[in-house]
Every structure is written in structure tokens, then in C-alpha cells.
Design a protein that fits this description.
Elements: H1 6-28, H2 36-46, H3 51-85, H4 87-110, H5 115-124, H6 129-154, H7 159-188
Helix pairs in contact: 1-2, 1-3, 2-3, 2-6, 3-4, 3-5, 3-6, 4-5, 4-6, 4-7, 6-7
């Protein structure tokens, strides 16, 4: 199906510009399978001097979509989770999620993990909405502004590198952040020398 073809969305981005990017960024955070990076890369490669503007649009609208995803999970997913798993189990998972929700949301926003799964799950587990917003802005912002910076400073010739290597770099960086965060928590609690 053409809607799931990234090249279709690259053409869409070039045709509709920032408005198309905003729409894709918003709906991808709720249900849409095409990540906003596809449109962001196409627009940044065409207009590197506007790369930071495109990153800002992507970050803001992705975060707004994440808030809607949160409410989808809160209104629709939470009652279903309680029905299938029971309130006690849902509350237990919530407490576990709550202990690490900032890191989970930050990592989901920064890495190629499906962001929508974490926004909806945050609602299902009635996580903190302010934390979702703050750490979505940080995580999504780091990702999109890093992409934009490459285009701003290196122009369209960086496109191949971004398309083929950046997801791996973000994944490794995200894993490193998690390891450092967990080590920090253990040291803080006195469990490591």
C-alpha cells in the first residue's frame, strides 16, 4: 500500500512542507506507522538552512501527539487492562513503570523504538502527564535536533549517512544512557562501591 511507502512520504513532505511534517509528527505519536524522521530528512536535505525550524516543528507536534496518545491509553486502554489483568496487577505494573518512567519516556523519544507505544502505555498506566511532556520534549528534541544539525552543517550530502547509520547510533546511545542511569541509581542507593 502506497501510504506505507517511505518514498511516498518524502514526496508528501516536499509538497506540503512544514504543515505535512507537523501532521505526520502528530499522528505518528498516536497510531501512524511512518516515523516523522522520513519527512524531516526529506525537508532538511532540500532546505538545510531551515533544518532547525523543521526539528522544532517535529518535536512540538510529536509531543502534542504523544499527549493525545496518553489520553487514548488513559481513557481506552486503562479500563481494558484492568478488565483483562485485574486492578491489582495493573497497579503493580504502574508502580514499576513509575520508578523508571522518566528514563523510559526519554529513551523512547530518542531511540527508534515506536514512540506511540510508550505514549499510550503511559496513559494506560496513568503515568505522570507532566513527565511525559517534559521527557518527550527532551528525548524527541535530542533526536530531531541532532538530525537537523547534521543537515544544517553538512547539507544534503549527509543524507545517506543519516538514513543508514543514525538509527543505530541513537539505539547505542539510548542503551548507554539506560546503563549509566541504572548504574547511577544503584550507586545512589549504596548497592555498588
Amino acid at each position: 500500500m502506497e501510504l506505507f511507502n517511505p518514498s511516498y512520504w518524502q514526496t508528501f513532505a516536499l509538497k506540503y512542507g512544514a504543515a505535512g511534517l507537523a501532521l505526520n509528527s502528530f499522528i505518528e505519536a498516536i497510531f501512524f506507522p511512518i516515523p516523522p524522521d522520513v519527512l524531516l530528512i526529506a525537508l532538511c536535505a532540500t532546505n538545510p538552512h531551515k533544518a532547525f525550524f523543521y526539528a522544532l516543528i517535529t518535536t512540538l507536534f510529536s509531543t502534542l501527539g504523544g499527549v493525545v496518545g496518553y489520553f487514548v491509553g488513559y481513557k481506552g486502554g486503562k479500563p481494558l487492562a484492568i478488565k483483562f489483568f485485574g486492578e491489582e496487577k495493573v497497579n503493580r505494573v504502574h508502580r514499576l513503570f513509575e520508578a523508571y518512567e522518566s528514563m523510559i519516556i526519554l529513551t523512547a523519544g530518542f531511540t527508534p523504538l515506536p514512540y506511540k507505544l510508550f505514549t499510550i502505555t503511559s496513559g494506560v498506566l496513568f503515568a505522570s502527564l507532566p513527565k511525559l511532556i517534559i521527557f518527550s520534549v527532551i528525548g524527541r528534541g535530542l533526536r530531531f535536533f541532532a538530525e537537523a544539525a547534521l543537515f544544517y552543517f553538512y547539507g544534503s550530502q549527509i543524507t545517506g549517512f543519516v538514513e543508514h547509520n543514525l538509527n543505530l547510533i541513537f539505539t547505542i546511545s539510548g542503551a548507554l544512557i539506560i546503563v549509566l542511569f541504572l548504574a547511577y541509581r544503584r550507586i545512589k542507593r549504596g548497592k555498588l562501591p
